[in-house]
């Protein structure tokens, strides 16, 4: 009996090499993504356990900080389409003038339920007191928008995005480049929603990595099988 030789052919070999590199590279990439998400979650958790420091120019995303100053409720921004426990509502961003620097930072006071009619905005009035507010700094990305008109005309304005580059254009003065998510201990806090620092957990990345490596293994098995099967006589 003649022993089969391994000879899959040039085209099949090119196909195999190309997709083997793609599948294996994607598997490694997902592992790297999982590791970076693990580091991010660890950094975020450590920051949330720290005592807040006074806000400075050196403060960065996920830092716990505090500010002292006065609220300005005349130019509040309502972030639309925020779902909390299955209910549609708004995140409320309120300008806060820092006493020491006179700089303005937008503070996320929390979530408020929307009314039945979208034309009837919820009551976000507040007492403009001098207050010390602590919380976590965040920099929201553009995300999904559901309307061509991102921001309404009249104050309080309704925004389809929480992206600061877009929101800050509605103000006539410079706004601090991060949003402060206020702790629920503030006198003017609304319903608190915790920050989710990532929309995909490390476990999911590792799961995707396993899928890519499995596809790589299957491809290798098929390549070997075809290489011998093709030359059976």
UniProtKB/TrEMBL annotation:
- The answer to whether the entry has keyword Transmembrane helix is yes
Q: Where in the cell is it found?
A: Cell membrane; Membrane
- PROSITE patterns in UniProt: SURF1
Transmembrane feature ranges: 12-31, 210-228
- Superkingdom of origin organism: Bacteria
Q: Name one GO cellular component term.
A: plasma membrane
Membrane topology, from the record: Multi-pass membrane protein
| Keyword annotations from UniProtKB, A to Z | Cell membrane, Membrane, Transmembrane, Transmembrane helix
Has keyword Cell membrane? yes
The UniProt entry's sequence similarity note says: Belongs to the SURF1 family.
In Swiss-Prot or TrEMBL terms, this protein is called SURF1-like protein
């Amino acid at each position: 009996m003649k022993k089969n030789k391994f000879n899959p052919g040039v085209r099949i070999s090119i196909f195999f090499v190309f997709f083997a590199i793609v599948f294996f590279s994607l598997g490694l990439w997902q592992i790297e993504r999982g590791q970076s998400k693990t580091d991010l979650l660890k950094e975020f958790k450590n920051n949330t356990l720290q005592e807040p420091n006074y806000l400075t120019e050196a403060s960065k995303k996920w830092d716990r900080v505090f500010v002292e100053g006065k609220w300005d409720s005349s130019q509040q921004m309502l972030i639309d389409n925020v779902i909390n426990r299955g209910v549609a509502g708004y995140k409320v961003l309120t300008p806060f003038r820092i006493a020491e620097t006179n700089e303005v930072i937008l503070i996320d006071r929390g979530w408020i339920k929307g009314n039945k009619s979208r034309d009837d905005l919820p009551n976000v009035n507040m007492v403009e007191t001098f207050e010390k507010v602590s919380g976590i700094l965040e920099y929201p990305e553009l995300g999904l928008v559901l309307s061509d008109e991102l921001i309404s005309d009249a104050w309080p304005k309704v925004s389809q995005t929480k992206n600061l580059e877009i929101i800050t254009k509605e103000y006539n003065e410079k706004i601090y480049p991060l949003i402060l998510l206020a702790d629920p201990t503030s006198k003017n806090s609304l319903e608190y929603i915790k920050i989710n620092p990532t929309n995909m957990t490390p476990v999911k990345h590792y799961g995707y990595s396993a899928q890519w490596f499995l596809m790589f293994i299957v491809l290798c098995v098929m390549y070997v099988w075809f290489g011998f099967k093709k030359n059976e006589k």
